[in-house]
Design a protein that fits this description.
alpha/beta, 8-stranded mixed beta sheet, globular
Length: 274
């Protein structure tokens, strides 16, 4: 499917912010069907903002028939341009990540969902995904009832509650029942990921399962950033990325790609049969 690219600069209210947030929008384009409508997906980026790898990842989703919004996460500190994948850029992105208020991250997500639902080519059914920092932001986006599913790649800082200035309450909100029985969540981690150790992955999985969150939890043979097709420091696994992209698209197709009506909790017992 063909795609088009645009952006929207929107004002935000939180943080020491002199810059608007830029949200890049990538839309499907079906010639001769000007009134076509598509579900929406918010793609949250790594600490480097919307880089080439993030834009290509988002474009692939859009080409499958989704309106994709990519917010620039660090508009409080600088413009929307991508941060380089070098040592200085990594240090800068990590500095911003812990200086930004968690409420400001949440406002960015709300603005992205608001934008998608306002677009004439969007059905209003929204999913989310992201990688690294963006995996955590996609996780938090599911607290918005408009977000019906999220696929989170190697989400950082959830286990340690260290996102943003003063830390975050992501798992605390899960324990409080804010995701119980709601949208579907997929967590994907590399087993060799040094950013989220086994104990952290186990904590995330146990917390979500204890809270009865509809969950798929995948651990694969990979390191951190294994889906980044540029400057991955030797960690990119193209075949595994393709396989998990297909898995993600099945989740999106099932949760937002169809009009299934409202979710009804099923109390039917699963039979033990062969």
């Amino acid at each position: 499917m063909l795609i088009t690219k645009d952006f929207h600069d929107l004002p935000s209210k939180l943080g020491n912010n002199k810059n608007p947030i830029r949200i890049f929008v990538i839309s499907p384009n079906v010639p001769n069907y000007p009134q076509a409508k598509f579900p929406g997906v918010v793609v949250f980026s790594e600490i480097y903002q919307v880089t080439g790898p993030v834009e290509r990842f988002a474009s692939q989703i859009a080409s499958h028939g989704y309106v994709v919004a990519c917010p620039s996460s660090f508009h409080e500190f600088e413009g929307p341009e991508a941060i380089p994948y070098d040592t200085e850029g990594t240090d800068r992105g990590n500095k911003y990540k812990v200086e930004k208020e968690v409420a400001a991250y949440d406002e960015d997500a709300t603005l992205a969902v608001d934008l998608l639902t306002s677009l004439p080519n969007c059905t209003g059914k929204i999913a989310a995904t992201g990688m690294c920092l963006g995996g955590h932001l996609a996780f938090r986006a599911t607290f918005d009832p408009r977000v019906l599913s999220a696929v989170c790649f190697f989400a950082t800082d959830i286990h340690s509650a260290t996102l943003g200035k003063g830390g975050d309450n992501s798992l605390a909100r899960v324990r409080a029942g804010e995701l119980t029985g709601k949208g579907e969540l997929v967590m994907i981690f590399g087993k060799q990921d040094t950013h989220v150790p086994r104990s952290g992955r186990d904590l995330i999985r146990k917390t979500l399962e204890d809270a009865s969150v509809p969950l798929s939890f995948l651990e694969v043979q990979a390191q951190h950033a294994f889906i980044r097709d540029e400057s991955s420091k030797g960690r990119w696994d193209a075949a595994l990325t393709r396989s998990l992209f297909t898995f993600m698209m099945e989740v999106f197709e099932r949760t937002v790609g169809r009009d299934l009506g409202p979710r009804v909790q099923d109390s039917m017992r699963v039979e033990h049969v062969c």
